[in-house]
């Protein structure tokens, strides 16, 4: 095995295993020197660290940041979507409950109106006939008899109406009034939970818009910021969203 060493003057000399521990002459300068018995092997220098590992680490970090950004963006969209559905649901249910109360009260008034119209029509017909007889200048015997008959019919009709009204109040009208009262109190009880749903929904919308505007890009960011400003001013500054909040309106 050949070894490369240097002479005292710095010239390169090639020696073999035979020359170890012996004196040799440098072929360049001619000086003789002693070859060491053990020649250390030259260890290859380690290659300097290159940039690819650092680049790969930076790429992985950038990829993780991108995935986290997408996850936050998706979370923000889900939050404001759920909040919007909650707000619409609370308002929609409140409107339906109010309409149910109005419908129940209107049925009470309608049934009372139909009852009164039915008996008023009969009374008015009899009263018109009696008035027509009174307007005559000269009454015939038949007119007097008809007048007496009509008066008796009118008196009997009024008594029948009084009895029918009592039965109507104890049966049909009472049931309708109970249904209207039940609808009113059901609306009052349910309005509390609809108000809670509205508040939670508005908070979800606000948080979702904040997260989305912080992670979105382009037009979506500006739309979310504009919606967030409108929401903040309408709900928490001017309080326009709370004016018709379920449960805040007075019961009729």
Can you describe this structure?
- Mean pLDDT is 81; it is low at 245-252.
- The strands form 2 sheets. This protein has a two-stranded antiparallel sheet. A two-stranded antiparallel ribbon has the order 3-4.
- The chain has helices at residues 52-134, 141-170, 172-215, 219-237, 240-243, and strands at residues 3-6, 12-15, 23-25, 32-34.
- The chain has 5 helices and 4 strands; from the N terminus they run ββββααααα.
- A hairpin with a 5-residue loop joins β1 (3-6) and β2 (12-15).
- The protein folds into 2 domains: 3-34, no CATH class; 67-243.
- It is mostly helical and 252 residues long.
Determine Rg (CA atoms, Å): 52 Å
Helix content: over 70%
Structural category is mainly alpha
Shape descriptor: rod-shaped
Distance between the termini: 112 Å
Low-confidence stretches: 245-252
Secondary-structure element order, N to C:
EEEEHHHHH
Number of distinct helices: 5
Record the strand order, biggest sheet: 1-2
Domain count, please report it: 2
Number of beta strands: 4
- Overall mean pLDDT stands at 81
